[in-house]
Amino acid sequence: MPRPVILLCVALACGWFAVAAPSLSAQQPAVQQMNREYEIKAGYFAYFGSLISWPKTPFPGSDREFVIGILGSNPFGQHLVATGSGYVLRAGAVKKDRIQGKRIRVVHYRSVGDFQRNYQPCHILFISRSSDVGAAESTATRANAARVKTAGQPVLLVSDAASMNESAGLARTGITICYWNDLATRQVKMFVNRKAEKQARLAIRARLLALQLVTVL
Fold first, then answer.
1. What is the DSSP letter of 162?
2. Can you state the percent helix, strand and coil of the chain, rounding each to 5?
3. What pLDDT shows up at residue 205?
4. Which residues partner with 215 through β-bridges?
């Protein structure tokens, strides 16, 4: 079984912590691999909150809540859980209810139509690679809707993809960060679009860009 390949060192207002996230093992059942995949990706929400800067007040209420939008199916399960006062992020030994010192709030849009009608400003908009129940939409359709709706806004667009080529293609269309699963090395990797970063008035720190798992476009 591969050794751990991702070390997320996250500096939050409440202190430093680390997540040692193993790579995706070929020996694990598919369901277990998916659970591990989204545990890693949930951990990246906190990592991005630490190593990406947004404008001082990107939207009203942003000083109190760190808002994560999810477009499509919500794959995070036990790793992003609602509580009475917000959400708790769980990744490895880490359990956090705040990012950037702010309470976490998650808004789930089950379809493009739901998203277009009910969109609320957010720090991160995660574009799932899977449609929710009853919504037969492609990842590209969701990504396009996300780009159009958030154009000119300081929103970090993060997309899932089924392959390296799809991930690179989505990134080149204007998605800031696109994941893909490297089946050869069993690692979660990502493309980063610096032009999309600048258009959204975000600032990604060098520490994130220097990760071996990152390809900068």
1. S
2. 30, 35, 40
3. 96
4. 191
Global pTM reads 0.85
Evaluate whether 173 touches 165 at the Cβ level (below 8 Å).
no
Q: Note the pLDDT of residue 31.
A: 58
Query: Rounded CA gap, 13 and 66, in Å?
Result: 13
- The answer to whether residues 102 and 63 touch, using CB atoms and an 8 Å cutoff, is yes
For 55-87, give the secondary structure using H, E and C. Answer: CCCCCCCCCCEEEEEEECCCCCHHHEEEECCEE
**Cβ count near 185 (within 10 Å):** 13
Low-confidence ranges of the chain (pLDDT < 70): 1-33
Evaluate whether 200 touches 176 at the Cβ level (below 8 Å): yes
Domain boundaries defined on the chain: 6-216
99-151 per-position pLDDT tens digit = 999 999 999 999 999 999 999 999 999 999 988 877 789 999 999 999 999 99
pLDDT of residue 28: 53
Whole-number Cα distances in Å, 10 to 33, 68, 100, 145, 160: 23, 17, 10, 31, 22
Cα separation of the two ends of the chain: 31
Four-residue CA torsion sign, 108, 170, 166, 26? negative
